[in-house]
Structures are given as structure tokens and as C-alpha cells.
Fold this sequence. Notes:
The chain is an alpha/beta fold. It is about 25% helix and about 15% strand. The chain has helices spanning about 30-40, 55-60, 65-70, 85-90, 135-140, 150, 175-190, 210-215, 240-250, 265-295, 325-330, 355-365, 375-380, 445-455, 465-470; strands at about 5-15, 40-45, 45, 90-95, 110-115, 195-205, 300-305, 330, 330-335, 345, 350, 390-395, 405-410, 415-420, 425-430, 480, 490, 505, 510. The protein has an eight-stranded mixed β-sheet with strand order 5-4-6-1-7-9-2-10.
Amino acid sequence: MPSRPNIVFIITDQQRYDTISALGFPHVDTPNLDRMAREGVYLTSCFAAAASCVPARASLFTGYYPHTTGVVDNASTWRHSWIENLAEAGYECVNMGKMHTQPMDAPAGFHTRMIVENKDRSMAKRGRDFVDEWDKAIAKANFVKPGLPSYSLLNDYADRLGAFEWPLPKELHADTFVGGLAIDWIERKASGKPFFLQVGFPGPHPPYDPPAEEAEPYLDRDLGIRPVAAGDIESQPIPFQQLVRKHVEGDHDAVRHKVDSTGEERHRQRAYYLANVTMIDREVGRILDALEAAGVLDDTIVVFTSDHGDMLGDHGHSQKWTMYEQVIRLPLIMWSKKGFGRTGAINPLIQHMDIAATLFDLAGVDAPASWEARSFAPALRGEAYEERDAVYCEQGRDVVFRFSDFVSMVRTRRWKYVHFLDGSAGQLFDLESDPFETNLWHSADHADCRATCTTGSPPGACRAVTRHASGRSAGGRRVESLEAGPWTMLPTRGRFPEKRSNWFIFKHHCYAR
């Protein structure tokens, strides 16, 4: 038996919280994730620290907020992670699938990497010419990888909203292929060391591309799709309205967005997206079976999560980059055959990066003292746990979201406040009275709350909402006001680069990016 538990860290790309049956959404077929949720623990209030892939993953795998790492957009470089700490502690560290480091083949602490990146990279600013393991497998089988160049030739391409039938053999689908890589490694593993196996599924990120028979069960179901309310887009800050137009005019990830899409078009998009989730669920079951067959399941902690969600037309938006719940609220299931002490749902307010500190706690590995991540292991054991007052999410200007230098969000149990660095507009939501998020920014009844959130001198209910904006990060460090630039921080130890430099903190040191 290894002295420390094995860890299998399964992360999907762009999977919403409302996509797992056991989490309260019975229209989705996820029997293996349901089992994990019943027998293990699932966190109902886990939130991403960034609204797009690269900064969200950099935060998760470093233990710091985006404004601390300097990785605030989807084209930023990040090459170091806490996987390095686990390797130093004696873990055999393996990546099968997507990590989304920049550069894509950065070691990031892994001893072995079998990289599978975005399903469609035909318009990518970085990585367009990168050849991953999936590309090689498709080429070896004498096929051309499906993507925007082929999907855009379809007569109804503009009406598909990124939903297409996978045209190649099932075993060559990205998610099935990654599951197979993970299973193959488990079956071949020879080292006696405890292992950290990261399994990065490319789905359900678009293109939404299940084989036709996988989507069929969802086509006649009520999928709970809410229509876009009249005036919703017009009530949003100008940068988010510009983001909608960008998606309408573009083809990012082979998705041609339509604000006026029909109910049938949105239903097909959602059906294909959920079919991708069900395919991933099947691979999760196969991975669990492989662990059991290899005789290591009893000593393994399994984590299932995603990096952020997908709007799928809600509030008139496509994909990510906004601060709505569909993007920032994440599924998180933790399972161990030995158990943690509690089972089922627990609801402390946590940042996604807190997974890192929790795993280090459970593995008996010392976490860096400078981390902004906090362990919620006591909550898993049913012990007293002081949750965060608020969670934060950040997004910088990038290749798609070009309309504001920096967007930051602060969310408490009740309130959500969204601030744009370079504008006077914003968003304010009372999640207690309206979980579907109607913007109260211009509401006369909420003028006092909006004002206190903006000025940073809060009385009463808005106090926790403004803490980040007024100068204190959750990690206890002092930051400048948002107007002065959220990237400037005075760290408690080590050195920190100013503004948008090409450096970031890791393990108390600055590494060139």
C-alpha cells in the first residue's frame, strides 16, 4: 500500500454545473458520476477564479488568483504548477489529455504527458500548428480531423450553433480517445510510487460533436432551457453586448452564434452538449473499472471537475467570458472508496483553486505558505469549517474578449457585483431573490448597494462584496484599488512583478513566462 493516496484528477473543459443528474438535474444521463456523488462528496458552491480556460486552469494548478499569477487572459503563458511539488514529494505525475498550459507541451511538473488539446484549433492564435496525440491517431487512421474547415461547408452550418454529428469511428472521438489513454496507462503502470494522474477531457467544449446515436436520447427530452428575456442583452454592460456581437460575427471553436436562434436550434445544441457529457461519464466509469482491475482503487482519491461552464445561449451569450452562474459555478465531486467522513452534498463557499490545498492536506504534502488556496478537507470530514466570505472571478482582455481591459466579479451567498476596470457600467445581482440574474445596476431600489460596492466603503450587507475591490484579497494581501490596476500587489513574501509583466509567482519565486 502506498504511503500516500493515489490521486486521479479528472477535469473536463467548459462543463456547466447543471449537467449531472445526482446534482439535481435528472434530465442528464450520468450514472457513473451519480455513483461518485452518492458515495463520495460533491461541493454545491464551487466557483472558478477566471471566466476562460487558461487563467482558470493557471489559478487551479498554481493555487493563486489570476491577478497574482498575471495570467488573466486566454493567451497568457503559464508553465509551472503545483504538480512540481507533488513530484518532489515522491508522486509519479502523469497527464493524459488536456492541461491547456501555454506552451501546450510545457512539462508543468509531469513525468509523462500525452497531450490532447482543443478539438478545433483552426482559428487559434496559439497552438494552431501544434500536433497532439489525437491528431497523430486520426492521421494514422487515414482520416482528416473534423473541425471548422469541414463543418462550415454544411448547408445549415450557421443554424447549428456548434452542434455537429461526429463523422469518424467512435474510438477516435476526442473524449473516448483520452479515456483510452488513461486506461492504457493504468493497465501498464509499473512503478510502486503513489501516482497523480490528471485526465483532461476536451469535451464538452465545442464543437459539440457526439455521434448521432449518442445525441438521440436527448432530442425529445425537456432540457430545461430558459428563453432569453426581453431586454436582457440591452440591459448588459456595453462590453458584454459587444461580446455577443463578436460571437454572432465569428466562428470561434466552430460555433456561429445566433441571438435570434429558434427553440429547436437551441434544443439541438443543448442535446449535443449533454450527449458529450454522457460520453465523458462513460469514460469515467471505464477509468474506475481500470483502477479496480489494477488493484489500486482502494488507495485512490478521485476528483471530478471542470474549468468553467458554457452559456449555451443563456442571457443571449455563447461560450464563456461572462460572470453569469452558467460560466463560473462548477461541478466538483470527490470520491474515495475509504470515504472522507461525510457523503453527499456539502455547501461551503469555495474557490476552485481550493481543490489544490485540499488534496495536499489529504495527501500529507506541505502546501506553499504563500498560497491563496485554502483547504476544505475539514468540511469533507464533517468537522467545523469556516467558509470564505466571498469568491472572486477575473478576466482580462484577450483574443476573443477584446472589449475591456479587466473584468472582476465578487460573489457572496446573496450578492454578485461585476466591475469593469475601464467603464462606469457594471452588474449587480441579488441571487437570493433572483437566482436567474436580472441586472439591478440601474435599479433605484439598489442604488445604495451599488454605490457602496463601487466606492469600497461598505456598510452592512455589501461589506464582503467590496472587500476585494477595496483592497484586501482573500489571501490576506493588500492590493491596489481596481482603478489603479488589479495586477499590482504587495506580497507577504517573495517578489512580485508589477502590472502586466511577463512573470508570475510560484513557490515564492518569480519565473520568466
